[in-house]
Design a protein that fits this description.
seven-stranded mixed β-sheet; alpha/beta; about 35% helix; about 290 residues
Length: about 290
């Protein structure tokens, strides 16, 4: 049996999240929580038994609270606000077919075995249950990655990994399907956040628990001269006319259903009764 590569130091992540809980930066968590409400508003289902799986912040659970809906909040840190229990998202402790809704806000980007986690969540859903999740995507913080890399190369002759890799949108639908989900959907929400300088951005990342947790990453802090040079490069290359810098954040949204006989099924290839040319109105080829 082969084990997935250990990209993230999960124990270090829990310590980072515990530290962040003391002075949280939560604007992104609240934005995602509002989007959860909007995305579920178009589904005429009560979802009486829901699981908040691994969300570091309670905003999504608070936003989705509704009469008749029980939400179990399973968080990755002892210090998470209003958590019902603490879990490691890579090892789901829940019984099969226990929930009709599982949602996760800004957590799954930190798991080492995403296909395995999807498979576990699929088993936790009752038939026709829904998985809805938001995670940080591959185009996030490209500006920061560029500036830190260039500054390190200038002063240290090479760059150590500091900004962790993210999953790509194109892979998500296939991973959900492989895990047994029906009707998988993945889409992207691009967000641009502006800061006075690089150090304000780093302060927010610290408040999200999103600083370096790479298993193979450098543990020593960046030197002052590297940070100052990175701040200078950021200002030169990614600032607006008013002097503030831009940070790109890509939020990947994914959804999938536990299979049920009532769901729509794709037609068998070759079973169409009307030629495509007819549907397109090209009478010359009917």
């Amino acid at each position: 049996m082969t084990h997935p590569p250990q990209i993230f130091d999960r124990a270090l992540l829990r310590r980072r999240l515990a530290r962040a809980a003391r002075a949280p930066c939560d604007f992104l968590a609240h934005r995602v929580a509002e989007d959860f409400v909007y995305r579920l508003s178009g589904i005429s289902r009560p979802f009486a038994n829901a699981l908040d799986y691994g969300s570091p912040h309670p905003a999504a659970a608070q936003a989705l609270a509704a009469p008749g809906r029980k939400i179990l909040r399973a968080a990755p840190s002892l210090h998470a606000e209003s958590a019902d229990l603490v879990i490691d998202e890579e090892f789901s402790p829940f019984a099969p077919e226990k929930f009709d809704l599982v949602f996760s806000a800004l957590s799954l980007q930190w798991v080492n075995d995403l296909p395995g986690v999807f498979a576990q969540l699929r088993r936790s859903l009752a038939p026709d249950g829904l998985l809805l999740a938001a995670m940080v995507g591959g185009q996030s913080f490209v500006e920061l990655r560029h500036c830190l890399t260039q500054a390190q190369e200038e002063f240290e002759g090479g760059a150590s990994p500091r900004v962790f890799p993210f999953v790509d949108l194109r892979d998500l639908g296939g991973l959900l399907q492989r895990a047994g989900f029906a009707l998988p959907v993945a889409d992207c929400d691009a967000v641009v956040v502006r800061y006075d300088n690089l150090f304000a951005l780093l302060r927010d990342l610290r408040g999200m628990g999103a600083t370096n947790i790479l298993a193979a990453g450098a543990r020593r802090p960046l030197s002052r001269r590297v940070l100052l040079r990175a701040a200078e490069l950021y200002q030169q290359n990614f600032s607006d006319p008013d002097g503030r810098i831009r940070a790109s954040v890509e939020i990947l949204w994914l959804s999938g259903w536990a299979p049920h006989e009532s769901q729509q099924k794709p037609l068998r290839p070759g079973s169409a009764q009307i030629p495509l040319s007819s549907a397109l109105g090209d009478k010359s080829k009917i």
